[in-house]
Amino acid sequence: MAAANNQRFGRSCEKLEVIDGQLNLDFIFNEAEALTETLYVVEPAGEDVLPSKKKKQVGKREKDLEGLPVVEIPHMLSEEKLIEIFGVNGWKRLPDEVYKRVKVEPAVYTVEEHHVAVYAGKDNQTIVKADRPKSLLRNSIATPSLVASIYNAKYVNGMPLDRINKEYLRNDIHISKQVLANWVIQCAERYLGIMFDYLHKELLTFRILQADETPVLVTKDGRPANSKSFMWVYRTGKWYKETPIILYEYQKTRKTEHPREFLKNFHGTLVTDAYAVYDSLDQKNPDITFAGCWAHGRRRFTEAVKAIPGDKRESTKDTIAYQALKQIAAIYHLDNKLSELTPDQREQERQLTVKPLVEAFFVWAKDIQQKNSLSKGKTLEGINYCINHEKNLKEFLNDGALPLDNNATEAALRTFCVHKHTWRLIDTIDGAKASAVVYSLTETAKANNLNPFRYLEFLLTELMEHQEDTSQDFLKDLLPWSNQIPEICKIKTKA
């Protein structure tokens, strides 16, 4: 009950100060050796040991405002005022004092009125019209920038279509919620779906992927009310920082055939939690190796420690859950120090420094399990979880490109999970599939340091121009990391 109440009303953070200067790992080997063996330690500078008051960074404001359009606004004294102060020709002009302020203007909506010239022959009935640009949707006022702004509001900023509709009305733009929904679905199916499929093929070429899923309600899916559907997410491994891909996929169930179908051409290692679906997939697909998530192994111990009443917190450090957390924290502590190394270097260092801690943890956990001294609860669940998935949890030691946990995938799902608390449910299956496509592109754009609105506007414009192309060769120039992406789509600092 304490764990359930804490999960519902307590803090969600799992951070625990277990490394406070003493790891207490004498049963493994000396602490100093554990933290420094084979690692190059840099002596801290004097200012790092005794830091003084933080100095203001020179030029930070100029850098922050770099790239924004500048309008000069002069402030001058009249000649009469100057004569009054200095006398006739009694002054000279010095360099101006310059300061900057940022002005914001609300969204500006412009109607593009296209005039297509029409010509008729004087001697016959031949009529010819001038070329006109292609339309996003036939007989629709929708443009790439308008649809991209709707996608940005809904899938990046989490605004339901009803709120977007009301915001438009406040600006005298009369577009019904039904029309907005129609645009969202049609443009996702007709244009963005092509890019999603192309990214899917790219994703399967990577050697390491990560996966997770979260429930979602879809009202009109042919099943009883409140039936759970699932939004699955797949992403490239944490260390593929140059070309990250994040893809969502909607499915009505949580069955094995969904990841099996999505990953049917994948050969490599998949980082996941211990959901049974992945275990069965591992058995049926010899081309896929599964790596476990240490964050999931740690979670049950964290819940056990959090469940201890406040008046008994002093005895926390004597609990088995706390001892488990302390050992897992040591594993994280050492592995985090290897983050800047290449995969090959990281693998070597893991074998030398991290592996002894991992092996010692499992020896300790099995000893606890064999003693059979734990009653049913979170601590026992944590011990059993780790031992049952020992092989998968040790997999990261054999490959320096594998992350220690699946937190990067959970972070990729965070936007969707936050948004679903706003709009609660999805109305139709078509809407759910369209949402999966757009979330995929916006999250991939953000991971590649692109402005989602600008990137979607660029995609819709280019895909509209290539509607009739039978070849998909042009799509490689639309990938988020392509050199052909306009500068306006790129952001200078990661949000």
TrEMBL record:
It comes from the Bacteria. Residues 140-433 form the Transposase IS66 central domain. InterPro entries: IS66_C, Transposase-related, Transposase_IS66_central, Transposase_TnpC_homeodom. Residues 440-481 form the Transposase IS66 C-terminal domain. Pfam families: DDE_Tnp_IS66, DDE_Tnp_IS66_C, LZ_Tnp_IS66. Residues 2-73 form the Transposase TnpC homeodomain domain. This is Transposase. It comes from Kineothrix alysoides.
